[in-house]
């Protein structure tokens, strides 16, 4: 089925982290006590919240970012980068004391990465409910992860539900969800690590196990679940059933932001009244492009680039 945007671009609010990524390229990561020679270091705008906002914006959505940065140079660069993608930043707070969040991303020659995050100002985010209502009142979706305080995530989810705005949650880094949050989540997107933490199941190499993860999370109150499986693709589950979406095999350069790219594409697809299966297929095409380019936000493709890319293998009912 062709992927068509609605005539009026949907609005998405992204609540989450803004980090400056220090991307270090190495042939391989050092073992314990070992020193290795790095090949390069770059400063790249990142943070899961900001990456997801950029992905939504590059798919044609109207996007507002809510988060927190410091008064330092990193904070200014991150906000400028969002604005270049047409993202509204009136919801980005400036902390007078904490520095902007930083992530050290070590990328191996294979494309796999290891990431250490220092929350900085992200950890001090405190939402003003009147501004939250203003941002969400005309939004189709609220996108969140766990790189900001859990109480702010829960508060925003409650306001979104009250206003009829759907919630997309990426529970990363993996944490135990407050009981009342489960029923406030419309779409949950998890990778293998998060799936294992939340259910005890390991879907890494088996789409059937990923389908069972989806069923368990739906039993907790979530309406739709997508389990991403890296090079294997993804499994989408709703109350109508499960579908497995294989991914094409490509040369991996850097997997940073692949999950955030996927989430943004799926969110905008659903906000544009596309089916879950069509949205997931397009998400795989976009994340496949993402992993062939170095860096976080620079690697996130536009909708036009995604549509011009090769199609993915046909999905399979499970």
Element layout with pairings:
Layout: E1 11-15, E2 19-26, E3 38-46, H1 48-58, E4 62-70, H2 73-84, E5 88-95, E6 101-107, E7 113-118, H3 129-136, E8 141-145, H4 150-163, E9 166-170, E10 187-190, H5 192-199, H6 207-219, E11 224-228, E12 234-238, E13 241-245, H7 258-271, H8 276-290, H9 303-308, E14 316-317
Parallel strand pairs: 1-4, 1-8, 2-6, 4-5, 8-9, 9-10, 10-11
Antiparallel strand pairs: 2-3, 6-7, 11-12, 12-13, 13-14
Q: What do these coordinates show?
A:
This protein is an alpha/beta fold and 318 residues long. The protein has a single domain (11-317), classed as UDP-N-acetylmuramoyl-L-alanine:D-glutamate ligase. The protein has helices at 48-58, 73-84, 129-136, 150-163, 192-199, 207-219, 258-271, 276-290, 303-308; strands spanning 11-15, 19-26, 38-46, 62-70, 88-95, 101-107, 113-118, 141-145, 166-170, 187-190, 224-228, 234-238, 241-245, 316-317. Strands 5-4-1-8-9-10-11-12-13-14 form a 10-stranded mixed beta sheet, with helices on both faces. A 4-stranded mixed beta sheet has the order 3-2-6-7. Helix 4 (150-163) links the parallel strand 8 (141-145) and strand 9 (166-170). Helix 1 packs across helix 7 (258-271). The longest helix is centred in the last third of the chain and has 15 residues, at 276-290. The protein starts with 10 loop residues before the first strand and ends with a strand.
Task: Please outline what is shown here.
The chain has helices spanning 48-58, 73-84, 129-136, 150-163, 192-199, 207-219, 258-271, 276-290, 303-308; strands at 11-15, 19-26, 38-46, 62-70, 88-95, 101-107, 113-118, 141-145, 166-170, 187-190, 224-228, 234-238, 241-245, 316-317. It is of the alpha/beta class and 318 residues long.
């Amino acid at each position: 089925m062709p992927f068509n945007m609605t005539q009026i671009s949907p609005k998405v609010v992204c609540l989450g982290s803004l980090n400056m990524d220090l991307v270090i390229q190495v042939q391989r990561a050092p073992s314990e006590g070992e020193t290795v020679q790095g090949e390069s270091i770059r400063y790249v705008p990142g943070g899961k919240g900001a990456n997801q906002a950029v992905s939504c914006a590059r798919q044609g959505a109207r996007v507002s970012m809510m988060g927190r940065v410091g008064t330092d140079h990193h904070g200014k660069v991150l906000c400028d980068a969002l604005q270049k993608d047409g993202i509204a930043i009136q919801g980005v707070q400036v902390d007078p004391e904490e520095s902007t969040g930083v992530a050290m991303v070590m990328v191996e020659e294979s494309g796999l990465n290891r990431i250490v995050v220092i929350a900085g100002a992200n950890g001090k985010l405190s939402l003003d409910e009147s501004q939250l209502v203003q941002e969400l009142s005309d939004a189709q979706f609220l996108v969140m992860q766990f790189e900001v305080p859990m109480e702010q995530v829960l508060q925003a989810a409650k306001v979104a539900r009250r206003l009829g705005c759907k919630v997309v949650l990426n529970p990363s880094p993996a944490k135990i969800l407050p009981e009342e949050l489960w029923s406030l989540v419309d779409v949950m997107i998890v990778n293998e690590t998060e799936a294992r933490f939340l259910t005890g199941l390991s879907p890494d190499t088996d789409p059937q196990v990923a389908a069972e993860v989806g069923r368990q999370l739906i039993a907790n109150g979530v309406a739709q679940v997508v389990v991403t499986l890296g090079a294997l693709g993804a499994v989408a589950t709703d109350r109508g059933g499960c579908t497995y979406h294989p991914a094409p095999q490509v040369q991996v350069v850097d997997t940073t932001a692949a999950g955030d790219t996927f989430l943004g594409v799926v969110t905008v697809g659903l906000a544009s009244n596309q089916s879950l299966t069509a949205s997931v297929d397009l998400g795989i095409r976009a994340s496949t492009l993402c992993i062939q380019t170095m860096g976080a936000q620079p690697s996130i493709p536009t909708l036009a680039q995604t549509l011009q890319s090769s199609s993915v293998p046909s999905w399979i009912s499970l």
